[in-house]
């Protein structure tokens, strides 16, 4: 299989600080992620001044401030984006960011990013999808809160505007996602419905679900991470700490190796065990030369470097060519 593309989702866990953002890049690079992803937006273009927070955001940041006030503090301007791209290049990790408005699409395109990651909330945003579609870049599309018709609509808009290299991520947008709501099999429902590359964007606690997604065929994995789950901000609690991120990535790489090529054959490591654990046809008791082999005088026992038990019916009725002692390998 192709190597799974792992996105370490920093999101807004930098809390508006360029220094924290760089530390997140360090963590993602050391953990072995392929890309570290942030979020690009102008609060004025994204949310109305009086819009309320999601319930999970109220739990993590309080209910006094509005959603606008919360995300205004988390903006990254063009100069900060440029600095983070430069730092990612230094750390040999791909910089990605999800644009949340039309201006941010232009900003990221100006920076020359290779992949546009479309967040779940923009899947009905026709102007947004058309603008990204016309860039003819690689696209990763998250599908939280979606049914198949929603996905079909977004794919049609992207394709009709010139974009065809699309990977669709199954996703649930509750932070954290309850296990009973993960519905991981829906990932392959998407794959079968649209004959498209699929992956999984995870918001569960822990690392087992994205690992399972890889075993089911995910080509892209996205997972939130933070420097410290106790930091102030909307997404820290539902994110992995640095060690958990590394554990997840290491486990995914092991699963990639373990999945193999799908050809059922003895592996190089187990060939040496074959003669030890398989059986051969041996004398059940002493057998004289000229005696006929029957079920009463032969049996099968380890080791397996003699005549295979698969030859049993062929041997029965043959005549011993010499004397055999008990447990001696039969020859014919």
TrEMBL record:
The keyword Transferase applies. Signal peptide: none annotated. Keywords: Transferase. CDD domains: SAF_NeuB_like (cd11615). InterPro entries: AFP_Neu5c_C_sf, Aldolase_TIM, NeuB/NeuA, PseI-like, PseI/NeuA/B-like_N, SAF, SAF_AFP_Neu5Ac, SAF_PseI/NeuA/NeuB. Its EC number is 2.5.1.101. Residues 280-332 form the AFP-like domain. GO terms for molecular function: transferase activity. This is N,N'-diacetyllegionaminate synthase. The lineage of its organism: Bacteria, Bacillati, Bacillota, Clostridia, Eubacteriales.
